[in-house]
Write a structure and sequence with these properties.
Helix content: over 70%
Radius of gyration: 18 Å
Structural class: mainly alpha
Shape: elongated
Length: 127
C-alpha cells in the first residue's frame, strides 16, 4: 500500500512538472525570478522529448509499482486519468518532436513577451 501511494505521488509530481515545463513561464509575468526554476525545467523537458530520453521519474515510479506488486496501471484516479496524459498509447518519435516543438514555441512566446514588457518598461514612454 505504501509503495503504491509513493508511486501515485511520483506520478502526480511528474504531471505537475510537465505542466510547469509547458506553462511555468507564465509565472514569470508575475514573478520574474521564477525563470531561475523554469528555464532549466523547460530545457530538461525539451531535451527529454527531442532526444527520446527517459525521465528518471518514470524509472522511480516503475520501481515503486513493482515493489507494490503492480503490473500495470489499472486502478485508481491517478492511474486512469493522469497516466494516459504522461504516457499516451502509441507515442511516436514524431509525436515527441512535436511535443518538444510545443514546449519551445510556448516558452519562447512567454519569455519573448516578458522580455518585450521589461524592455518597454525600461525605455519609458516616448514623447
Amino acid at each position: 500500500m505504501l509503495y503504491r501511494l509513493a508511486a501515485d505521488s511520483v506520478v502526480a509530481f511528474h504531471f505537475a512538472f510537465v505542466l510547469f515545463v509547458v506553462l511555468g513561464g507564465l509565472l514569470t509575468w508575475r514573478w520574474p525570478r521564477a525563470a531561475w526554476l523554469h528555464l532549466p525545467a523547460a530545457a530538461w523537458g525539451f531535451l527529454v522529448e527531442a532526444t527520446g530520453w527517459f525521465c528518471p521519474l518514470t524509472d522511480i515510479e516503475n520501481h515503486l509499482r513493482a515493489r507494490a506488486g503492480q503490473a500495470g496501471y489499472d486502478g485508481g484516479f491517478i492511474e486512469h486519468y493522469i497516466l494516459p496524459v504522461l504516457y499516451p498509447v502509441g507515442l511516436t518519435r514524431a509525436d515527441q518532436h512535436l511535443l518538444a516543438a510545443i514546449v519551445l514555441v510556448v516558452n519562447a512566446a512567454v519569455y519573448g513577451r516578458l522580455w518585450w514588457r521589461r524592455r518597454t518598461e525600461r525605455s519609458g514612454p516616448s514623447d
